[in-house]
User: What shape does this take?
Amino acid sequence: MQDQDFILFEDYLSGHLSLEEKQAFETRLESDALFNEAFEAYKETSGFLEHHIKNTAGTEAFKANLERVSSAYFNKQVPSKTKRMNPWYYSMAAAAILAIGFFIAQQFSSPVYDDFANYGTISLTVRGTQNNLTTKAETAFNNHNYKDAERYFLDMLETDKDNIELQLYRAVSLVELNKYDEADKLYNNIIQTPSVYKNKAIWYLALSKLKQGDEEACVNVLKTLPEEAEDYQQAQELIKKLD
Assistant: This one.
């Protein structure tokens, strides 16, 4: 197994994959036996750790217990004659070790913008006369070239100024370029309109506040996200980590 596989496991379990990525992951689970076995081991280890820490009297007690167990394990004497281990064992051991690492990192570190800023791949809906510019904007954005993407979105908005989708992704690009005032103004304008993008704008505005280091503002925005919103569960997870 490779490191990125274990990162993928964590993203799947925490709900950070897009629908397309989730479907690809589940297809691989069905077709790749070793991948499936490693995922099950990772999932079981993560579940055990989550249950354990919730039933431990405080994080300091958990840390102390973890250090004690780790010390006892790694200081065991190794017999002079050892059996040859099945490669499957090493994959399972790696899954367990990485599960512990990811879990501890999540529990004892503050959330950051990059943990949640997953904008996926965009496919714009705009007027047919802007097909060439649309392609350039999509390509730039999907390749994380936000400087060019923001410029293309701005050009498109000159002839389609009421297009909420373009406004939303221009705001995302502005956040990535650290132009927060412009971005937040766009997000707030979208939130005030009866649009299918309203809830996304709320979620993205909260992420903008998180990137700016304004955790209080981030939480306040997150609390306005309705339960039916696609990002509601992630919002609750972020609130829990920030409160």
